[in-house]
Amino acid sequence: MRSDWKMTPLPDLLSFIVDNRGKTVPTSDKGRKLIATNCVRNDTLYPVYEKVRYLSEETYKTWFRSHPIPGDILFVNKGTPGRVCMVPNPVDFCIAQDMIAFRTNKRMYNKFLFAVLRSPYIQKQIYNTNVGDVIPHFKKSFLDQLLIPEPDMETQKEIGDIYFSLSSKIDLNNKINANLEAQAQAIFKSWFVDFEPFQDGEFVDSELGMIPKGWRVGRFTDIADVLGGGTPKTGNSSYWNGNVPFFTPKDVNGVYTLTTEKYLSDEGIRNCNSQLYPINTVFITARGTVGKIALAGVYMAMNQSCYALKGKDGYTQLFIYGIAQMVVESLCHKSSGAVFNAIVTRDFDSEYIVIPDKDIVTKYQDNVEPVFNLILNNAKQSRTLAAIRDSLLPKLMSGEIEVPLEG
Hints:
The longest helix has about 40 residues, at about 360-400. A five-stranded mixed sheet has the order 13-20-17-18-15. By secondary structure, the protein is an alpha+beta fold. It contains eight helices and 21 strands. About 35% of the residues are buried.
């Protein structure tokens, strides 16, 4: 941190704190979105809508003390304290337990504070101030202990806008990829659920209803091998901090996974039960957070809480990716909507699916492969932008790089 910057307790730079903690909000089946801490992540600009709940309009108007407005900064204070996201415009959600929102005053540029709160400098402060061994908690009274750099407003805007613009491009790529994946899913459904391209052909009856002639009903494991992963058997430090991404349930973020929380060394791979899986391997999380699906964006290993799906002769990985989503949805439906504790290999063997001719699978691959290539390229660009942003921020804050940037 630059020595000539004033350090100010965070509350002195805020005009308001949105704080609805203290009691549990009543929810309903539909209505306004209520986000939880899992929706706030340090790798997205705005909250993601994952396992959201809903509340009635009456609850929205009467239960809360206040609501976030565009430009506020969401701050998780329980579970994984310190995760922050910007509040978008328009605001289409509410916050209640385990998070608050900061509204800056005239001394602090909100995008600069957003960048500072995500910086290693502040994240370390937050981590060191947490209390609670089982569920970490950052008390509101601790906010005074967070000392925020307060350069002149011009410098705040330069740094804040740089960080925000890079984050915005990543956010745009994520939205484009979500749209592209929706297109790919629509094509898959059209071909292999509704059979729309084959309506002029002959259909035959089967255990799963009418299907195109020449297709058959079989087990999921007829077209894909279900492979396991593993973790090195000891805690030997030489097994880690290498260059091999090690996929775990925490690493699902979008269609493709390119980076992971942990990396194995070559020695770690040799002492691990996991194979080194190639690009487009389908991963399914099987324990803890169950049923999430991702494609490998680079060669990577995998831990024992996941399965890798590898298409058998002629059944391509992108086809397996589409079928896998149907299989997981079926397994969840059979469990009456309950959250899985685990998926085991025999679950896949019990799933019956409609299996098309291999030439149809090849034609499908030809149609969707360009879409998935675009998704992968966007994901790679976002990874590069995130690396630039996250390496640039400490240098801007330390004075190693001056603002405004030249060029």
